Amino acid sequence: MATQQQQPPPVLPPLRVPFEYVVNAVVPANGNVPVSLQVQQDADFEWVFRIASRTDPRVTVDVSDGATGRKYTLVPVNIDNFCGTAQLPFPLVEPFIIARATSINFTFQDSSAAQNTVQLILSGYKLFPQKNPAQGSAGLVTSSD
């Protein structure tokens, strides 16, 4: 008598819920401001678009991963070259997954000789597991199975 092997349950794709992470900074005249963005622990984040507004275009942004220190820019980049606008958001060629509970570090540098107010938006999707398991304090998925 042959025994049948049980097939593992199908892996369901995550639920993709639209979400925006917002980074606000008031950069002093000819100064710089570091800002850290903490991705929430409830879900990974699929980053799809970059959007920004600023009071003056003479501001640069430098971006790095808080956990690994990996830089997302070689050198600080002019905000208009790094991001699009609300009317024309800048799409990432390939969506980028940021793990839950990760921090992303931004440094804004002004060269306009006047205070600069910047808002940078990471637009995309929270990726919730289909089974909706409980989340541990470190953002790890735990299951009661």
What is the topology?
Blueprint: E1 15-27, E2 32-38, E3 44-54, E4 59-65, E5 77-78, H1 79-82, E6 90-98, E7 103-110, E8 116-128
Antiparallel strand pairs: 1-8, 2-7, 3-6, 3-8, 4-5, 4-7
- Tell me the CATH architecture: Sandwich
Order of helices and strands: EEEEEHEEE
Q: What's the structural domain tally?
A: 1
Please indicate the percent range of residues in DSSP E strands (runs of 2 or more): over 45%
* Count, helices: 1
Oligomer: single chain
CATH topology: Jelly Rolls
The N- to C-terminal Cα distance equals: 30 Å
Strand order of the largest sheet: 1-8-3-6
Helix content: under 10%
Q: What composes the largest sheet?
A: 4 strands, antiparallel
Uncertain residue ranges: 134-145
Q: In total, how many beta strands?
A: 8
Structural class: mainly beta
Give a structural overview.
The chain is mainly β and 145 residues long. It has one domain: Jelly Rolls. The chain contains one helix and eight strands; from the N terminus they run βββββαβββ. The strands form two sheets. Strands 1-8-3-6 form a four-stranded antiparallel β-sheet. Strands 2-7-4-5 form a four-stranded antiparallel β-sheet. The protein is elongated, with a radius of gyration of 19 Å. It starts with 14 loop residues before the first strand and ends in a 17-residue tail after the last strand.
